[in-house]
Amino acid sequence: MTVAEALTLYGEGHAGETKDPVRIGHAIAALVRWWGERPVSAITKETCRAYVRGRRKPGKRHPDTGEVLEWLPVAEGTTRRELGTLAAALNFCMGEGQLLNPPKVHLPAKPDPKDRWLTREEAAALIWASWRNPDAKHLARFILVSLYTGTRKTAVLRLRYMPNTSGGWIDVDQGKLYRRGQGQAETAKKQPPVRLPRQIVAHAGRWKKRGARWVVDYEGHGVASIKTAWATAVEAAGLGETGVTPHTLRHTAITWAMQAGADIWETAGFFGVSIETMMRTYAHHHPDHQQTTVRALEARGRKL
Question: 144 and 230: one domain?
């Protein structure tokens, strides 16, 4: 069996049942371009490392012809996810009886958690840059929902005002956010229903009264991508070289909650984050972080 055949079986037989088949599709496309018709037996530690080193994406293009002038290396976090898809494909083929004893897929080390979050001044600049752009007012809504709920990008773009099967919804009357659609299975990326802050309830109520069906809408329709609007707003807000992405809004929401002294267990439940992640990535922002330990050390062994 070739790697391409294994990935095709996985894509056709399982990817459509996952939470984010589009993302898996992108990973499969990248893997097939590199591995091609190599046999599954060619998967070794060295070839996995070679994939990480050789994975490139289009960078600069010719302004007139659109021809790719430069290919840029992909972040190791991306290649780790792609190789994870390859490992899942091999396991799927083994489970289907199509493959015996698949080789181990060697993943690059897990990158350190990103700690980039927005200050309130940066967030305000980003919202204002979106709002004053006639073609990006929908992005201002996206940013507000993300900052007040910490919901992931795809889930925010799928939000409506009524229960549905394709995404979550906001219950304006009850002040609650349901991040998953009816019948959608829970995944590793937890999407618990939560109470909403009063500010976003007020915003969402106004948007709904204006006839919107999607929480983030553009000319009466849902929004599939914010890539172009986001890039424009980030540049206009003076954040172009600071590594700010839509996912930064989620980091910002959790960080702000910690800085305000929120209970770490409640915060983990609200955002659907494990306690391990909270302790590793966000706990140091809490004003009481390690306070009792420091007091104990200051007491030099005396009982507090």
Answer: yes
Q: What is the pTM of this model?
A: 0.73
| Other C-beta atoms lying within 10 Å of the C-beta of residue 93 | 22
Helix locations, the chain, DSSP H:
3-13, 21-35, 45-54, 76-95, 120-131, 137-149, 153-157, 198-209, 227-236, 246-259, 264-271, 275-277, 291-298
CA distance 304 to 299: 7
Quote the crossing angle between the two packed helices 76-95 and 21-35, to the nearest 10°: 90
Q: 62, 95, 128 — which closes off a domain?
A: 95
β-strand partners of 194? 177
| Residue carrying structure tokens 């809408």 | 217
Confidence at residue 183, expressed as pLDDT on a 0 to 100 scale: 61
- Residues with pLDDT less than 70, the chain: 19, 113, 183-191, 304
Residue range of the domain that includes 201: 120-247
CB proximity list for 184: less than 8 A, separation 6 or greater: 19, 165
Residue that is written with structure tokens 């589009």 in the block? 22
The tokens for 178 are 């349901």
In angstroms, the CA 87 to CA 92 distance is 9
